[in-house]
Specification:
about 130 residues, mainly alpha, 5 helices, globular
Amino acid sequence: MLIPQYVAAAASLFGGELLALIPFIGLVCLLVGVVMGIIERRRTLWLFLIPFIASECYVGIAALFHGHLSAHATLVPACIFAFVQIVLIAYLVYRLRGADPAVWALAVFSLSYAASAYFVGQMAWTDTFV
């Protein structure tokens, strides 16, 4: 699962790592989106679980092929994953009438979580962990 690594990366912002800003902003947006969704009682926001589950599946598939691909061979699945996530999140923003701040907050979280899944997946495909 990517969740503990995502939270740990966000917490490392306080240790001075600038790249930790991506998951930190994602977690803040998740909190804002969930709270606003609960206050507004928008059940359609549950659709943002789809990009989250897709990210988890990508990391799981990359873990199954742990170290079996070279850096060049990972380009195709990584690009497909990134394209699908961007299109899916854009469609959800369009479908859920994107003017709502809760939708945008959850979209930012989904994009930051997908970026983290992309990096963890790339490390798993090639067995080069940082």
